[in-house]
Design a protein that fits this description.
Layout (H helix, E strand, L loop, with lengths): L14 H14 L4 H9 L8 H13 L9 H15 L13 H15 L6 H11 L9 H6 L7 H23 L6 H7 L7 H14 L7 H9 L9
C-alpha cells in the first residue's frame, strides 16, 4: 500500500489526527517490526546483553536505518558501555511531564549515541526511543527538516522533545474532555498499536511528514458523511 504524497504544511496533531494516522500506520506497517523486536527482547531492554544489542541493531535496519551488518560485532560492546553510563539516569516521567533536567539527560544520551561511527541522527533517536520509549522521541531526516532541526547537535533533539512534550500534553487535555484520564486510556480507547505517546506522535509525524499524507479536513468529512457512508449502495 502506498500513501498519496502531497506537499502540505505541518498541522499540529489533534485527537482525530492521531487516531486517523495510527490506524493508517498499522495498515501500512503490517509486519509490525517494533512488536517483533519487543517480543524478542522481552519486557526490559538491556544493551549489556549482547543478544539484545544485536536485536536492536537488526531492528534499526528494519526501521529504515542503514547500519552495515559487518559493524554489528564491533558496535555491541560500544552500546553496552553507553547503556551502562546512561540507563540509570533516564527519566521516570513520561513525555508530557519531562522537566528540564530530564531533557538534558536525554539530549546527552542522544549525543553520545551520535559519537558511534555507524550512527546518525535517525538511528540515534530510534535507539534512544527503544531504550526509553515513554520519554524519548524517534525521528527521521524528513521530520528533522520539517521542524528546522536538521543536524547533529544534541540541542536540536532536545528541542524536538520540548515540542513533542507540548503536543502530548495538548492531546491528553483533549482526550480528558472525552473521558480518557491518561495516555494509557487514550491508547486503549483508540485501539492503537502504539504503546506510548512518543510512539503515537511518531506515527503521526511519519504519516503526515515523511509520507506527506494529508489528513482529511472537516469539510471533507462532512461531505463524505453526507454521501451516506453507513448506507448500503443499491444496484
Amino acid at each position: 500500500m502506498k500513501l498519496a504524497q502531497r506537499s502540505t504544511a505541518y498541522q499540529r496533531p489533534t485527537l482525530f489526527g492521531v487516531v486517523y494516522t495510527s490506524r493508517l500506520f498499522s495498515e501500512i506497517e503490517s509486519q509490525n517490526t517494533l512488536a517483533v523486536f519487543r517480543e524478542k527482547i522481552g519486557p526490559t531492554l538491556d544493551l549489556q546483553n549482547p543478544e539484545h544489542a544485536q536485536a536492536l541493531l537488526e531492528w534499526l535496519n528494519k526501521w529504515g536505518c542503514r547500519i552495515t551488518k559487518e559493524s554489528f560485532q564491533q558496535m555491541v560492546p560500544i552500546l553496552a558501555d553507553w547503556f551502562q553510563k546512561w540507563a540509570g539516569r533516564f527519566p521516570r516521567a513520561a513525555l508530557p511531564n519531562l522537566e528540564a533536567a530530564d531533557l538534558d539527560i536525554l539530549a546527552g544520551a542522544y549525543g553520545d549515541l551520535l559519537a558511534i561511527k555507524e550512527f546518525g541522527p535517525t538511528s540515534a533517536a530510534k535507539a534512544l526511543f527503544a531504550v526509553c520509549s515513554e520519554a524519548a522521541m524517534p525521528w527521521d531526516a524528513a521530520i528533522q527538516a520539517a521542524f528546522n532541526l536538521s543536524g547533529r547537535e544534541p540541542e536540536k533533539y532536545r528541542k524536538m522533545l520540548e515540542k513533542s512534550g507540548h503536543e502530548a500534553a495538548t492531546l491528553l487535555a483533549e482526550s480528558a474532555q472525552r473521558g480518557m484520564s491518561d495516555g494509557k486510556s487514550l491508547l486503549e480507547k483508540i485501539n492503537s498499536r502504539a504503546r506510548t505517546l512518543p510512539e503515537l506522535l511518531d506515527q503521526y509525524n511519519w504519516v503526515t511528514i515523511t509520507r506527506r499524507h494529508q489528513i482529511p479536513s472537516c469539510e471533507d468529512l462532512r461531505q463524505w458523511v453526507g454521501w451516506g457512508c453507513c448506507q448500503m449502495s443499491t444496484p
